[in-house]
Amino acid sequence: MGKVRQADIARVAGVSQATVSVVLGGNRAGVRLSERTRLRVLEAAERLGYLPDPVSSRLTSARNDLLGVYAFTPAFPDVADGYYPILAGVEAEAAALGKDLIMFTASSAAPDRIRRTRLADGCLFLGRHVPVDALAGLLHAGFPIVYIGRRTEMGGRIPHVGADYVSASAEVITRLARAGHRRVRYLREPDEAPSSGDRERGVRGAAADAGVSLAVTRTDGTDLAPATIAGWLADGVTALVVEETDTFAVFDAAHRALRAAGISVPGDISLAVLGRPPGGAPGPVVSGFEVPRRALGRAAVRLLASLVEPGTGEPPHRLLPCPPVPGETIATVA
Asked: Record keywords: Metal-binding included (predicted)?
């Protein structure tokens, strides 16, 4: 038998399709119906094996315990990718709260595709750059959204859960200063994103406080030649600090250039990453800090659930601490 329609139930129960719609929709309008008619409709629906359309249910109920997840970049490229533990945290917390998830797979930021997220009770978003116009429309309509990662767009009105990159990055520079480093080169990607800006703010502030001479190089990694890093070493740079992003492009390029130049870490130069390098990177454990990605996913789900069901007391913006990773790549300078 094909999909059971409300018209089929109406025929079996001997009532109008409008009556079936009222009964299956929970009679929220308070239409006067006899209990006998209501039971006849429900019995016919059960006998025919009727399953309500979740989209229709969404339109006739306040909530359906479905939370959306929308990524503006591929979300599952590899288990070592930075998004993987975030999504694992999202899944774990959604299960703990009794929520189901809808994964919106399009990486496009087109408004018509983003509007589909309203099939859910609310939606999580992740990606380095925000499609402001599309999200503004959702917020204006009162649709609950939470961004995973601190956002400054729209006057800070986007609810978010992020990592405290400012404090964590400052701690890495302070660690280098305590080890005697006074000339540091910081490598960051050229594009603008709040996470990159937060890291640089922490680096610059801590360097100024500690009297560290800091030079910032913006690069996508393609111009990091072995001779470039050898030249920095010859100029007295004793430590490289590298931004970590979801692509790991700059860290990977720096690591390759160091090997190609025959520069040992930390024997010839110290190395720190503002985050953690991809799993399985060769050599000693790189000093840096832990990005609490799984905790970010879980906290984002809790915040979204609190926006769907107001009154649970979750703040609309939250930054999680990043525990330091001592590692083995910061040497003491005599």
From this structure: no
